[in-house]
């Protein structure tokens, strides 16, 4: 940025950005203070704009999360008995297909052990719902929450063991099915944003 030097009486000098195209006449010390405060505000505003532009450019490079849906033939409270284990193309060069398949095998193993029992309790609870005023559904609700807790615990272990180290994060997410009020549980593989080391403090 080019600067304009304005000479004034009593050997005072004020530095103004040349692009402002202004002439400053100073009559007192208060005027000098006010002018310098204006220049400080302009400089701070330029720095904020630069930082905002860097943040926007940085956030544009974060990829959308990978969605893994359930494909099992049994679903209890939105949780399917099996998730699709096909290797997503977005993970090429990020993680080995063998590691991904092992993770999906462990997830589906937890579901295979838990979901059939949950379905049996759901059937019994529905049969006795009228006699128990809905209390017979409490066991299956507790079992479903325990299954979700087991999955979240497994995903935390997977993240700490491998995926967080390579910039990925797995989590179980509840969302609506397209254009309906039905909800389902899906797996999200999120890309962890890299720390911008070039960004000033």
From TrEMBL:
Keywords: Membrane. Residues 81-170 form the Golgin subfamily A member 7/ERF4 domain. Its main location: membrane. It is found in: Membrane. GO terms for cellular component: membrane. It comes from the Eukaryota. The keyword Ligase does not apply. The keyword Membrane applies. This is Golgin subfamily A member 7/ERF4 domain-containing protein.
């Amino acid at each position: 940025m080019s600067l304009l030097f304005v000479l004034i009486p009593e050997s005072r000098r004020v530095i103004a950005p040349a692009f402002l195209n202004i002439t400053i006449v100073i009559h007192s010390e208060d005027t000098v203070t006010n002018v310098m405060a204006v220049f400080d505000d302009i400089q701070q505003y330029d720095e904020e704009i630069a930082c905002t532009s860097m943040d926007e450019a940085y956030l544009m490079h974060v990829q959308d999360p990978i969605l893994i849906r359930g494909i099992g033939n049994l679903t209890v409270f939105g949780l399917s008995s099996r998730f699709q284990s096909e290797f997503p193309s977005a993970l090429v060069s990020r993680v080995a297909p063998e590691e991904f398949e092992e993770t999906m095998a462990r997830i589906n193993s937890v579901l295979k052990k838990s979901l059939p029992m949950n379905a049996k309790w759901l059937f019994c609870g529905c049969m006795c719902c009228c006699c128990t005023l809905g209390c017979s559904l409490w066991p299956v609700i507790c079992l479903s929450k325990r299954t979700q807790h087991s999955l979240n615990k497994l995903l935390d272990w997977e993240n700490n063991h491998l995926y967080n180290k390579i910039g990925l994060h797995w989590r179980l997410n509840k969302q609506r099915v397209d254009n309906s009020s039905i909800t389902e549980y899906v797996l999200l593989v999120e890309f962890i944003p890299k720390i911008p080391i070039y960004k000033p403090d």
